[in-house]
Amino acid sequence: MSLLDQLRDPVVLKGLAQVGVASALAAVVLGVSYVRNLDLESELGRAFVRGFVQVVAMGAFIGVLFSVPFVWTGGVVLAMIAIAAWISKDRGEGVPGVLRVSFVSILFGAGVVIVAMLAAGAIDPTVRNLVPVGGMIIANAMKTNSLALDRFKGEIRSNREEIEAVLALGVPPGKVVSDYTTTSVRASLIPMVDSLKSLGLVYIPGMMSGMILAGANPIYAAEYQFVIMAMLFAAGGLTSMTSTLLVGEYAFTEAEQLKPFEAADDREDAEGASGG
């Protein structure tokens, strides 16, 4: 089906009506933010519009991909990883080598899981399966990486004086930040662990529901949903562990001194204060 045929499909118009209802509900949140002076409506509004445009564009793109050879999906997945790294670096702005760390970590964490699941047959080697499922795995790895970077940056900033004092005593850098690394990995995995704990009791994922509505065996749908959750957890865990290990390496100079963890805005504020 061509892109034009997809746009002409009557179900697309039905979907737009549903989008309108969902957007109205989201607008309530923006209105409450404005009334309570939370100053979130601008960021939330942009994120909401951006998310809609991006997901529709991806849907159209996937529709076009259905007509191309499977080998091209490797480039698509790699591009998704690069975009995920670019988005994730914003949460870790100021962390030394943050873009490189994000790309390598997400590539490793998501890549290992995708390749392993392709080999095991959990992901069919088709565009229709690899791009959506691979996208879920990459997106989860991105979120976990962002949480790990943000927490690690906060830990270093809060404990900088203590870290520098311990370094002055001759303690190896890796040992100095090991506790902060552990804390960051644990914090980044909390949402995933909570999702696993509530799976089937509170949290009934959309994929399982969709498979059941499509007529699949409910037990198999539950089994496959658990496979998906396990893949997401594995990708997130590998990503956050790799990310914090790499940051732990990049955080120090060759002289084993702690590098500054400052975002561009922080540096400008510091320069302005010193200039004033």
Helicity range of the residues? over 70%
The number of helical segments is 12
Q: Radius of gyration, Cα only, in angstroms?
A: 22 Å
Query: Kindly, what is the distance between the CA atoms of the first and last residues, rounded to a whole number of angstroms?
Result: 63 Å
Shape: globular
Query: How would you state the average pLDDT, rounded?
Result: 82
Q: Indicate the low-confidence ranges by residue numbers.
A: 267-274
Q: What are the secondary-structure elements, in order, as H or E? A: HHHHHHHHHHHH
Major sheet = none
Structural class: mainly alpha
Strand content: under 5%
Number of strands: 0
Structural features, described:
It is a single chain. The chain is mainly alpha-helical and 276 residues long. The protein is 78% helix and 0% strand. It has helices at residues 3-8, 10-35, 41-65, 73-88, 98-120, 127-158, 160-168, 173-176, 178-198, 206-213, 218-250, 264-275. It is globular. Residues 267-274 have low confidence and may be disordered.
